[in-house]
Amino acid sequence: MTTILKLGGSVVTDKDRRETVDDAALANAADAIAEADTEGLVVVHGGGSFGHPNAADRNVSATEGTTDAADVRAIHRAMGELLTTVTDELGAAGVPAVPVRPLSAGYRTVAGDVELSTETIAMMLEEGFVPILHGDVFATAGRGATIVSGDELVVALAAELDAERIGVCSTVPGVLDDEGDVVPTIERYAEAETVLGGSGSTDVTGGMAAKVESLLDATAPAYVFGLEDIGPFLSGAEAGTRIGPSP
Ligand code: IP8
């Protein structure tokens, strides 16, 4: 069984302090993953205070491209530093984590779709490794390079690897309604539109609304939950908000 777990950039970094890892949150996430059965697990982490400020400085987003290779290098470098920290921390906790860099494994088409080659990742899984990917900068037909969010990669990975479940670990315990309560399920975007706001910090890929919209297109049910629910999610429980039809 293949499971895709996204660690939100705002969970593993201090989103308000540039290029700063949230050591305690990352250690908690690493411990929860290490305690679970990691066979068939792929982890993707977001950009947080590494990717988003570097992309925003250069006016690069999921739709705005750059043709300047120095921009591509700068954004990719920042994400590489975060990837190294996340992979090392997971490894130290006992997870057989190995890094995978999306810039070298995919691209965005002229229609805006994400193409990701997953043969290498499938072989890593077969050999018992846990591949770790991240939101990145992606060569994009006719636009130079744009940002690919971790959420887009999660959807592409789920389709290509025929995953059964997607988990998205966020700073909140799920998608919240106006009263601050977790919305248990979202099956259509219209149901959630009124409760979805933007992101509080610099987020070039659109915050919770964009997350829900892209997860609704996924080939597997997706769950949005907080740090405390990584363990329950990985053990097969329902956690936070389920996005998409029931499994
Ligand atoms: O935080 C964005 O990934 P996300 C990655 O999953 C960059 O949206 C480079 C900003």
TrEMBL record:
It catalyses: isopentenyl phosphate + ATP = isopentenyl diphosphate + ADP. Its EC number is 2.7.4.26. This is Isopentenyl phosphate kinase. SUPFAM superfamilies: Carbamate kinase-like (SSF53633). It comes from Halanaeroarchaeum sulfurireducens. GO terms for biological process: terpenoid biosynthetic process. Substrate binds at residues 47, 52, 150. The record marks 15 as: Transition state stabilizer. Catalyzes the phosphorylation of isopentenyl phosphate (IP) to isopentenyl diphosphate (IPP). Functions in an alternate mevalonate (MVA) pathway leading to IPP, a key precursor for the biosynthesis of isoprenoid compounds such as archaeal membrane lipids. The keyword Transferase applies.
